[in-house]
Structures are given as structure tokens and as C-alpha cells.
Amino acid sequence: EFQRSAMGIKGLQGFITKVCPDVCTMVNLKEMAERHRINHPDFPPVIVVDAMSCVRYWYTPESWVCGGQWQEYLANLENFIEAFMAAGIKLVFYFDGVVEEKKRDEWIKRRLQNNKEIARIFQFIKTHRKQPGREMFVIPSALPTFTRFALKSLGQKTVCSLQEADFEVAAYGLQHNCMGILGQDSDYLIYNTSPYFSIEKLCLDRLVTVMYSREDLCRVLGLSMTHLPLLACLLGNDIVPESLLEGFWHKCLVICPPKNKGYSRRANILLAVANYISKVPCSYGSLKDLEKMLPLGSDKTLLYRGVESYLLPGQQSPWIPPNVTNIQMFSIQQETAMCQDKEIFQPISLTLVPLFLKHEAGQIMGQQLKRGTHWAESCTSHVSHSVIASVLLFEPTGQIQLITGLLLCAWPITSYFEAHTQFYLPYTLSKMHISDIYSSIPILRTTCSLLPDHSLNIFSDRGDTVSSNSELIVFLISLNFEDQWLFPSLKLAKEQHIQSENYAIFNILSNGEIECSNSLEDECDGEIPGQALIYRPARQHIYSVLLESGKDGAYPFVKEWFVYFGNPLQQPELVQPIQPPVPGGTPNLKTLWFAKGPDVEKQRYSTFLACFHLQDMMEELQALEAPVAGFCCLLTYLILQVNSLSLEDLNAFVALILCLKGKTAAQLAGLQLAQVDSRAVHLGTVFIRGLTTLLMANSACGFPFRMDDLMPWKMFDGKLFQEKYQQSHRGCSLEELLEGSVSNHIPLDSFVFLEKCTCPLQTLFHF
């Protein structure tokens, strides 16, 4: 979250600024919008925003190290939106919804580097007792997560991607004839899509910024637009690592020596690579020749996959054979009525049944599939997806002759099998015991209770193995891929994910995986565990709510990529779900997500509380205002989990919520801190990460709270917490700590439930 794994092609943005500034043009977005209306009367001016590359520019509050100035930030977002609305420009915001497996190594590399940056920040705070300068700036923990919900609360169209967002941003801009893309990622110079505007250079008051021209870049480099994806790959990107390209760069520099000694090495490499590929015929054969020049190791398709990753729906490339061009027919119909995973199921006399099935990253695999193993080999050697489609060939007896892959619509399960086998999924299934199939697919166990009874016969308690795939195919055909009842829990989770309505649920259900980026935590503070460890017990309960257990009571593991000091991130941690202590047992998702009535509302609330071991506090918590109840849930959980919390710490948190409600964003911005305490910085981060855990539990339990009531601007401010923390630890009186009177904010009686949880807090409330 501190920064996307890689913001495009390293050095390209700087190269443009210093070597070919003509590529950059200052433009007035209001004037461009007026021209857009004239030239495209059927397309109102829309700018699609790469939000992940914008958050660091949106966060302008002076204080960033204390946990976040959330009310100030919310006001900033509102001002940003209003500026574009005044010019008649609609904004569509995209956020990264996943970390793609192909980019995991880069993600890990960046996270470990961020750990070092965070350590330097804490060293500075301890030495100088103040916040570092902007040159050490990192965004507050969980800022992108809460930004999604902030924009939704402000009425904006907000999309959480099913793959890394830059592709979806570029595709949306192309499909909807958008006025432009706003961000700070040089990949948008490579995609052949809408114009690319800089968020870094944006002057909001005048709506003026820099527009980067792909055409002018090509003119300077002597290339065509079709060369740009190959150029990006040969300079190094998320798919083709730079470490494999050093020898190639050296060869290019020998052929085309630097002409200007004032240029950086990176600029000279870029010019030399561009010169080299300008002389290469644009063909698939040329690409294969280039692959032979590179030390690609066991994966000879890196270059191919890199070029393919820049192709948007409907586009072709001379570097890719026409018969497989754009096999990823990505669906970008992400409106409110989207996520209708319509089958393309065309039985042809039960002889050839091609299925165009949806990839877990949201890509539809297209083109008529050809019969035979030659097709399978050629596709699997070129296409970047591990499983691209299925070819089901039936003899009259129904026996399958060939299966090259199987992926269910809206049921991305291949990752579970790829971790354990090198075979394609159907082949694996054909060799597995029927109970193993059931136990190996968490989402199947989760949703099987929602399927029609006649479809569940295949998962009956049997002692034999599946000697052929006929039973599996009968099961799949009986499902008929009808959206109204096909895995409705996953379908709903997917819709909510894309529309930024839930948090983390879809990735857990679909991939059994979750990640959390760096947090501003002090690795030298041994008394406060990492937030990833503090909230793991709650997450284990949440996983149990989402993933049904097998007949033996065992749950599938969830793969966690959580960043904390001491975790080398060499592999995911396998976390076992644990049932929460819900009175009467944990309801299933069918009840939590689809049932209605007051009894169900009570079940949702009690299940949520049980995830934090607060099920006995239900009556007291329901009497509170929702944001205060959420705050109390989190604080009580911290009391139970972190033994080192002192009475002074708890007093500071309670004073924070009591005093925050009566303050405006301007008042909070005006707070001045004489110094910054590093331990309070750490505690503030732990609290903010706890709010994301509340969001996850709320999403899993069917939303007993409105998501808006669990937002940080309702219950936290970094500077105010620092002030209360320091006052409390100085021994200030309760009257001073609570600013004289809080009777106009929240009655102290509403906190009586805390007395049941921890005796030391009684001293706070009995005065």
C-alpha cells in the first residue's frame, strides 16, 4: 500500500522529462472537456483515475506519521471531486484489488525495502521527537483501503479490480472513449488507450496538468506504437526482470554508443534499446529470436507474456501470432449490473464442447478452440494464463478424450491445485478420491449448501474413486451455469468486491489468499506485537465464517502474505481457520448473507462480536452509537490481546473518541504538537489496522454495521491521539484530558460495558 509494486517502466518518466520534454504538454482539462463534448457528443467527458498512484498526492495534511488526519483527508477528496464536477468532468476511480502472482516477487521486494524505510522513520522520531520531513514521507497505513470507501461515501463510481488495476484502467478508458487517464505510471505511455495525464503535475485550482504523448515519444525514439510493448519489456517491467536484461543492454550499447555524455546510464540504455528494436522486423519470429538472446531460464515465454500484457480487448500485435492474439477477452463491463458471469456453453452433438470460461483475474478466455493436442501445446506455451479454457471431447459413451484445462465461471479454483500438482485440473480430479475433491476446494464446501439438492449427489459419501470424468461432467452440466443460483455467495462477494463494498472477502473465497502491506510499526518495540499477529486470532475466526469445514471438521488453510518485522516473506504463512464462539453455533453464509428478519440481524451481530470474543457484550454494544460500538469492540479486543497496554494508553484512546466527535476538520488541522512520541505512532497504526479487521469481519458476517460507521474519520485522528497520549502519560487530570466536559458529545454511561472487560478502566469512568 505504501506504493504499488512498480510504477511502470523504471526511468521512462525521467527520460521523458529530461531528454524529450516535447512529449510533455501542459493542458487545461476544462478546455479539453469542452472540446470532448463537441467531438464526442455521445460520450460525456470522463477521466478514469488510477487511484493507487494518486493517493500519495491526495494526502496533503501536514501530519502523516501519527496514524492519519482522516477528517482533513476526507475534506481533500471532496474538494478534488468538486473541482472536476465544476468543469463537467466525471471521474471513475480504480483501485488494485489483487496482487497478481506474476508480480508477487516485485511486491515482496518493495515490502522489504519499505521495512527499512520505516525503521529509519522511527529512528528519526526517537532522535528528534518530531515527524521527519516530506522526503521520508510514506502514506498512512491502510490509506488506499479507506480511500475506496471514502470515495464511495462521496457518491463516486469506485471500482476494485480483479487484476492489477493498470490494465483495467487502460481498458476502461479505451472502451468508454474516456477523455483521459489520470495517474502517475509510465505504463500508460505503453498501452494504446486514452490520453495520459499526470496527477503529480496537476494544479487543482486551474485544472491544469501535463499530458504525455505516445505519438511524440515514438517520434523521438524512431518507433511505432506497436513497438512500445516490446520496448517496455526489454527495459524491464513487472514480468521481465531487469536482472535478465543486463547482457542485452550491453549489446545494444555496443551497437549504439551513447551520443550525449550528459545523459544518465538509464537514458542511454533506453535510446540504445529503442534503436535496436527499430531495426527488428515486427513479427512473432523476431520475438522468438529475441527470446533466444535472453537468459530466460526455464520460462521461455516471459517476453511473449510481457508484450501480451499490454494488449487491450480488440487489439492485435505483430509480435503475437494472429490465431492466439488477444485470447484474454477481458470483461470490463463493471457497472452496477456487472459480474453476470454468463456462460458460453455450446454443446455440438456432444462431440466438441468448447467452454469460454472466466479466469480468476477477471479475464474471459476467447476464440474458437481447436481440436487436438497440438492446439493445447501451442496455447499453453504462449498464453500467460496457467489455465486458459477447456476442450471437452466426448465419444458417444460420454468418455472424455481430452481436457486441457478446466475453470468454472466465477469459480477460480485452479490456484489450489497448482500448488500441489503439475497437471491440469481435470486430469487431477480424475485421479482423486471424490472426498478429496470436496475437501480440496474451500469455496465448494462454502457454497454447496446453496446448490440444488440434485447437484450434490456427486459429493455423496462414497468409497470409490473417480475412474472417469463422466460424473464430474454430469455435475457441471447439471449446474447449467445459471447465475441466479450458481455459487451465489461467491457471485455476491465478487460483485461487492468490484463495487468496493466489502473488504478482502472475495480474495479469500476465490483464492484462499490475503495480503497486507507495510504498517508504520517500530521493530524495536518488543512489547507491542506486530499488528498482523495481534489480529490473527480474529482473522482465523473470520476465515472460519467464510470457509466451511469438511466432514472431519478440518478447514482449508488460508495463505497470508502479511508484512511484519521478522517475516521474511519467502512464502505465505498457512493460517488455520478457527470457529468463533458464537452462541448456538456459527451460521452459514446462506443465512448471514441472504436471509432476512430480526433473528438474522441478531445472528449477524453476534457472529461479528464472536470474532473478537465479545459475544457476551452484545446488549451493551447495541445500545451505543454504531461508530462508538465499533471503537469499543476494537479497544476491548486490544485490551485482551496486548498485555503491555497501560491504563494511560487506554485513557488516551477513550479520551480520543470522547473528544473527536465535537471537532471539525479545520480544528483538527490546527492542532499543534510540541513533540511526537514513537510509541504513540506505533499504537495509532495498530488501531488503524484494527479498523480494517473490523471491515473484514463486517463483510463476512453480512454487514451488521454500515461500513461508513467503521471508518477512521468517525473514530480516529492521529494528532489528537498523540495529544491525548502525551497528556495521559504526563499524568494530566481527567478533566483536562477530556477537555472539561464531554456531555455534549457522548454520555459516559455508554462505556459502562468496558468495566466488565477490564478493571483498570473503572478509574476512568468513576469521577
Question: What key attributes describe this structure?
Answer:
single chain, 767 residues, alpha/beta, seven-stranded mixed sheet, three-stranded mixed sheet, 34 helices, 14 strands, 43% helix, globular, disordered N terminus, disordered C terminus, Constitutive coactivator of peroxisome proliferator-activated receptor gamma, transcription, differentiation
Question: Brief description of this entry?
Answer:
This protein is of the alpha/beta class.
For the largest sheet, list the strands in their spatial order.
1-7-6-5-2-3-4
Largest sheet: 7 strands, mixed
* Distinct helical segment count: 34
Report the strand count: 14
Give the strand content.
Answer: 5-15%
- Secondary-structure content class: alpha/beta
Provide the residue-averaged pLDDT.
Answer: 79
Work out the radius of gyration: 28 Å
Straight-line distance between termini: 43 Å
Helix content: 40-55%
* Uncertain regions spanning at least 5 consecutive residues: 1-6, 325-486, 743-755, 757-767
Q: In words, what does this structure look like?
A:
The protein is α/β, with parallel strands linked by helices and 767 residues long. Helix 10 crosses helix 11 and helix 27 (626-641) packs across helix 30 (678-700). 46% of the residues are buried. This is Constitutive coactivator of peroxisome proliferator-activated receptor gamma. Belongs to the constitutive coactivator of PPAR-gamma family.
Secondary-structure map:
Layout: H1 12-18, E1 24-28, H2 29-39, E2 46-50, H3 55-58, H4 70-86, E3 90-95, H5 104-128, H6 143-153, E4 157-160, H7 165-175, E5 180-183, E6 196-198, E7 208-212, H8 214-221, H9 228-235, H10 246-255, H11 265-278, H12 284-293, H13 302-308, E8 328-330, E9 352-355, E10 363-365, H14 373-382, E11 390-393, H15 414-418, H16 425-431, H17 434-440, H18 442-447, H19 470-479, H20 488-498, H21 505-511, E12 513-516, H22 531-534, H23 536-546, E13 558-562, E14 573-575, H24 589-594, H25 598-610, H26 618-622, H27 626-641, H28 647-660, H29 665-669, H30 678-700, H31 718-730, H32 734-737, H33 752-757, H34 762-765
Parallel strand pairs: 2-3, 2-5, 3-4, 5-6, 12-13
Antiparallel strand pairs: 1-7, 6-7, 8-10, 9-11, 13-14
Helix pairs in contact: 9-11, 9-13, 10-11, 20-21, 23-30, 27-30, 28-31
Subcellular location: Nucleus
Function: Functions as a transactivator of PPARG and ESR1. Functions in adipogenesis through PPARG activation.
GO cellular component, one term: nucleus
